[in-house]
Amino acid sequence: MTPVIAARGLTKTFGDLTAVDGIDFEVPAGESFGLLGPNGAGKSTTMRMVGAVSSRTAGDLRVLGLDPDAHGPEIRSQLGVVPQEDNLDPELKVRENLIVYGRYFGIPKAVCAKRADELLAFAQLEDKARNKVDDLSGGMKRRLTIARALINEPRILMLDEPTTGLDPQARHVLWDRLFRLKERGTTLVLTTHYMDEAEQLCDRLVVVDHGRIMAEGSPSQLIRQYASREVAELRFGSDRNADAAARLEGLAERIEVLPDRVLLYTDDGEALLERVTDLGLHPTTSLVRRSSLEDVFLRLTGRSLIE
Amino acid sequence: MSAGALPRRLGWWYVAEHTWRAMRAYAWTIVMEGIGQPLVYLLGIGLGLAAFIEVSVADGADGPVTYLQFVAPALLASSAVGITMGEFTYVVMSGFKWRRLYWGMNASPVQPQQIVGGIVFAVVVRMLLTTAAYYVLIVAFGAVVDPWTGALMPLVGTLGGLAFGLPLLAYAASITEDKGQFAMVQRFVFTPLFLFSGTFYPLDTMPVWLQWIGWLSPLWHATEIGRSLSYGSPPGAWPVGVHLAILLVMATTGWVLARRVFVRRLRG
User: Fold this and answer.
1) Domain span at residue B14?
2) Domain segments of chain A: what residues?
3) Mean pLDDT, chain A, whole residue set
4) Superfamily of domain A228-290 in the CATH hierarchy
5) CA-nearest residue of chain A to B100?
6) How far is B167 from chain A (nearest CA, A)?
7) pLDDT of B135
8) What is the DSSP string of A59-80?
9) What is the DSSP string of A168-234?
10) Touching check for A178 and chain B: CB below 8 Å?
11) For residues B196 and A8, which has the higher predicted lDDT (pLDDT)?
12) Using an 8 Å Cβ cutoff, are A141 and A133 in contact?
């Protein structure tokens, strides 16, 4: 089956700056695909090219089998886009925002109105239909933006940093809604710099840094490949972490010294903690957790995702 | 029909629909500007100022015209120009920067040229309605000598509004940081134009070294055409065709620039 998105050597430069540096990826229909990387990695620029609102500098790109440079309106009519910053119209009521936006796709008003009601239910905003947008909380605005992006029944839903700036509870409500879309078979393409989000929502992802793809795979594959099963996090106090790490050499598969803590990659965290104590080292705090995409990113780039 | 075919043709119309719907939020301001403001001017000038002015300021085809008949075409045209001071400044800046509505439209099948087209179309309709209401009022006040030819004034006023407004729109769309530029435009462009465009007295009353402001002013050109329509060409005026050509050149230049800025900004 032809992938819904296919990029080969995709490149975008702004003057001297290379924002996207020759990336290759494919997204099959129905997949939930993520671009994980820090701010400025080129994720949003990639999204703009896929969204057919920014032309590429070099390489090849096909979205739904079409070239975005030549078929922008045809491609965009089948996409749903959730931007990083909400751009709802505060002059319009909640429900009106959906209807007005549906018109941009050439959808008759009556159909827009019907879909608006269904989408408000999906976004759990039924009782807010006649409210002003400014009365909504941040999480509700995001859900409305997602509902708006679904008004044209898109073949691909693109989300740029969907939960940035939301509180934990609002994030979980949003994830639940996105997970339902995924279950229904909607193709999701999302960017995020949150590992937990990528783990929750993505079937497959690429780790992006400096406009390049560093690794590709499912969250569990990436963790298996680039990190151990478990991580022991030890804190000895800011001044003593480096000294302690030197004495821990050889104890774990890999050691990362961060400013505030030492990470020890191992398959059995508890056993490792015991050996640390046997060495006569007493960290102020210690915990064992499962490896996450954060560890993958640290391994690949030598940097933490959120700095 | 293939996906996106309808928006390719009608995208501008959807943008206009949206713009009108959003205008409802400040509908009261629009009505006040459309009816209240003309009433204030007509009462103030017609009952107040006109009573003091005994010399005839201009002659029409059938002899001297009243002061109110002289001022009315200028007031009508300035109402169209005034609309652009809001719709083509802060509203546009907000669309790009604060509310970011244009980015939402941009993600839909609609093209940047259609976005700017729809905005302009919606505002043209608002200018036509406002100037038409203005026209009815000035006729009611006896401020139009020939109401038949004068009926074209709303069209001319709207053209004047575009000649001033479209270059302003292009400028507003190019601004990324609000540093009070629009207040400067209001103070140092709009207000001087209003005062020095032969609005309240014939332009040639002014010394030549100030008359150039009028020559550059879309308001003066629109006003002079309006006066010709109401009471025949005022003596010594430029031919109507020249005024019209200047307005068309200004509006067209602004339109081309505005489209270019919208495309560059939304499709970077």
Assistant:
1) 5-266
2) 1-78+156-220, 84-154, 228-290
3) 92
4) UreE, C-terminal domain (3.30.70.790)
5) A87
6) 25
7) 96
8) EEEEETTB-TTT-HHHHHTTEE
9) HHHHHHHHHHHHHHHHTT-EEEEEES-HHHHHHH-SEEEEEETTEEEEEE-HHHHHHHHS-SEEEEE
10) no
11) A8
12) yes
Distance CA A63, CA A88 (A): 26
Q: What is the mean pLDDT of residues A40-48?
A: 93
Count the domains in chain B.
1
pLDDT (0 to 100) of residue B2: 65
Phi, psi of A85 (to 5 degrees): -105, 130
Task: State whether residue A15 sits within 8 Å of chain B by CB.
Answer: no
Checking if the pLDDT of B233 tops 80, the result is no
Are A79 and B267 within 8 A, CB to CB?
A: no
Q: Which residues from A are below 8 Å from B107, CB to CB?
A: 51, 53, 76, 79, 81, 83
pLDDT of residue A146: 95
Q: Cβ contact (<8 Å) for B108 and A88?
A: no
pLDDT at A306: 56
Which residues in B lie closer than 8 A to residue A72 (C-beta atoms)?
Answer: 109, 111
Nearest to B22 among A53, A91, A106 (CB): A91
Give residue A304's pLDDT. Answer: 67
pLDDT value at residue B3: 74
Chain A contact present for B110, CB below 8 A: yes
Superfamily of domain A1-78+156-220: P-loop containing nucleotide triphosphate hydrolases (3.40.50.300)
Contacts of B106 in chain A (CB under 8 A): 53
Please tell me the predicted confidence (pLDDT) of residue B1.
Answer: 47
Does residue A98 carry a pLDDT above 70? yes
Tell me if chain B has a CB within 8 Å of the CB of A20.
no
